[in-house]
């Protein structure tokens, strides 16, 4: 891709393709609804009517599937439109930087020119500025070329989906390979096919395949553990996602003189806000606590280095304990697989996404709370009784832009109901020998005896979803010496 191509890139045109796909989807859904209304108004009875109704249902299903295909490809194109806008914004920044330093960028010949200075020191500074602009342009063109290839694929899929009389190759149709992969993943864990809403939610989380083109077919890493089921509590979906289109990620191999505060690469984010209908692949880390089937599924989705085009999935460290009442306490730690020194170093610092989350079943639905890093965004939803309810939504505290990981991974914050986590701690009396008083008598005993606050430590680590033996989360019974606590 050339600088001239970059100048001609129009995000609005890309968005027009996405809008056309969405309009096409609405058109086919309208036809399906109209056909259903016509069939419902038929007045005759008998075998012929039954055949007509059956055929109409078949056609209606095809129309809705085609609409779903158009919707999916439209969303793909729209996501790449945001990436194009990000690249165009960076191109504008580079041009302004060059202009400030008196550097002319010839788009046609892709050369840089700077008015020569007679002063040696100023000349050396000009050379440094030229190198910075040159390196920035090279990096941007590499990112633009990678984006252009994936965008072209998405546009081609969109054109196919909108073609009359043809079936699109989009992966997200009900009878697609994705659905078959979900069934196979669920069957491998439970020995049966998914049936209920909870089954299908867990099947989607268990399926490691990537369907978003940006992930280039790299699988997610999925780990699991079994818990005691709590019927009626449904599935609690926890998603940790990056709101921006991309983020800065520390990289030791970056040039030292790029004008940046520190060397970094650009990693793709999830580019979204809170969304109760989001799929497991659309977050950095997703944790599904399925109280119906008695399992917790955690997955770390692939990370994409937009500068190099590399795609890699990290391995999350997840562990849990459970109380007899069904409450679950989770610890999680997940790092960028491109982190300098590797994931293990990043998790140990910790320069990672980590925290503690508790989920407590109650009569009116689960309650959640815990301590999490200030970045990324966190959303938790409860799927039960055919409805979805938001339990917690927490936006990054410091910044939600590209600098989020640099400033938001070290500080932590409390979220949700604090009593959920504290209900797992043990309260024990602390023995202290009597102290002599001022006249060598015994000092009066304190009105409130000293106590120890002891958090649980017997967490069960999760294992690979493909393992023949799934770990079973230990049952934790906190000790409560209430008689030593002050009366209320």
Topology:
Blueprint (H helix, E strand, L loop, with lengths): L2 H6 L2 H30 L6 H54 L2 E4 L4 E4 L5 H43 L14 H14 L6 H10 L14 E6 L8 E7 L4 E5 L13 E5 L16 E6 L4 E6 L2 E2 L6 E2 L4 E6 L5 E7 L8 H6 L4 E8 L6 E7 L3 E8 L2 E8 L9 H5 L3 E5 L1 H5 L3 E4 L21 E4 L5 E2 L1 E2 L24
Antiparallel strand pairs: 1-2, 3-8, 3-21, 4-7, 4-15, 5-6, 7-8, 9-10, 11-12, 11-20, 12-13, 13-14, 14-17, 15-16, 18-19
Helix pairs in contact: 2-3, 2-4, 3-4, 5-6
Q: What share of residues is helical? A: 25-40%
N to C succession of SSEs: HHHEEHHHEEEEEEEEEEHEEEEHEHEEEE
Strand percent estimate = 15-25%
Main beta sheet: 7 strands, antiparallel
Uncertain residue segments:
164-175, 254-261
Written description of the protein model:
The longest helix has 54 residues, at 47-100. Mean pLDDT is 84; it is low at 164-175 and 254-261. Helix content is 35%, strand content 22%. The relative contact order is 0.10. The strands form six sheets. Strands 16-15-4-7-8-3-21 form a seven-stranded antiparallel beta sheet, with helices on one face. Strands 17-14-13-12-11-20 form a six-stranded antiparallel beta sheet. It has a two-stranded antiparallel sheet with strand order 1-2. The protein has helices at residues 3-8, 11-40, 47-100, 120-162, 177-190, 197-206, 343-348, 404-408, 418-422; strands at 103-106, 111-114, 221-226, 235-241, 246-250, 264-268, 285-290, 295-300, 303-304, 311-312, 317-322, 328-334, 353-360, 367-373, 377-384, 387-394, 412-416, 426-429, 451-454, 460-461, 463-464. It has nine helices and 21 strands. The chain has one domain. By secondary structure, it is of the alpha+beta class.
């Amino acid at each position: 891709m050339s600088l001239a191509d970059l100048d001609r890139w129009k995000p609005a045109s890309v968005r027009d393709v996405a809008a056309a796909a969405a309009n096409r989807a609405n058109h086919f859904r309208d036809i399906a609804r109209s056909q259903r209304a016509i069939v419902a108004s038929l007045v005759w009875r008998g075998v012929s009517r039954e055949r007509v109704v059956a055929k109409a249902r078949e056609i209606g299903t095809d129309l809705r599937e085609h609409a779903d295909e158009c919707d999916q490809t439209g969303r793909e194109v729209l996501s790449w439109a945001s990436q194009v806008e990000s690249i165009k914004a960076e191109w504008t920044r580079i041009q302004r930087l060059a202009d400030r330093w008196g550097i002319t960028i010839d788009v046609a010949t892709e050369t840089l020119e700077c008015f020569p200075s007679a002063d040696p020191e100023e000349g050396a500074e000009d050379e440094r500025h030229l190198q910075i602009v040159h390196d920035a342009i090279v990096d941007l063109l590499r990112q633009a070329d990678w984006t252009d290839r994936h965008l072209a694929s998405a546009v081609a899929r969109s054109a196919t989906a909108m073609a009359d009389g043809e079936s699109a190759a989009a992966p997200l149709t009900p009878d697609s390979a994705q659905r078959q992969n979900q069934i196979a993943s669920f069957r491998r864990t439970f020995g049966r096919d998914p049936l209920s809403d909870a089954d299908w939610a867990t099947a989607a989380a268990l399926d490691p395949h990537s369907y978003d083109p940006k992930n280039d077919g790299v699988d997610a890493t999925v780990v699991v553990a079994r818990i005691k089921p709590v019927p009626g509590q449904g599935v609690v979906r926890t998603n940790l996602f990056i709101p921006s289109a991309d983020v800065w990620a520390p990289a030791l191999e970056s040039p030292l003189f790029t004008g940046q505060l520190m060397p970094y690469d650009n990693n793709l984010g999830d580019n979204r806000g809170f969304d109760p209908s989001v799929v497991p692949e659309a977050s950095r880390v997703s944790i599904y606590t399925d109280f119906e089937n008695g399992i917790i599924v955690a997955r770390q989705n692939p990370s994409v280095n937009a500068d190099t085009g590399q795609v890699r999935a990290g391995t999350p460290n997840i562990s849990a304990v459970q109380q007899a009442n069904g409450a679950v306490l989770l610890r999680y730690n997940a790092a960028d697989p491109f982190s300098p020194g590797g994931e293990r170093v990043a998790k140990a610092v910790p320069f990672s996404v980590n925290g503690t989350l508790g989920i407590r079943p109650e009569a009116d639905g689960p309650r959640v709370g815990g301590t999490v890093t200030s970045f990324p965004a966190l959303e938790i939803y409860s799927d039960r009784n055919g409805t979805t309810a938001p339990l917690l939504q927490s936006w990054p505290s410091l910044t939600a832009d590209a600098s989020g990981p640099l400033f938001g991974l070290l500080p932590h914050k409390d979220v949700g109901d604090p009593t959920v986590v504290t209900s797992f701690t043990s309260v024990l009396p602390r023995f202290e020998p009597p102290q002599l008083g001022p006249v060598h008598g015994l000092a009066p005993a304190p009105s409130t005896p000293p106590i120890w606050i002891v958090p649980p430590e017997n967490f069960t680590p999760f294992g690979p979803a493909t393992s023949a033996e799934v770990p079973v989360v230990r049952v934790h019974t906190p000790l409560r010496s209430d008689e030593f606590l002050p009366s209320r």
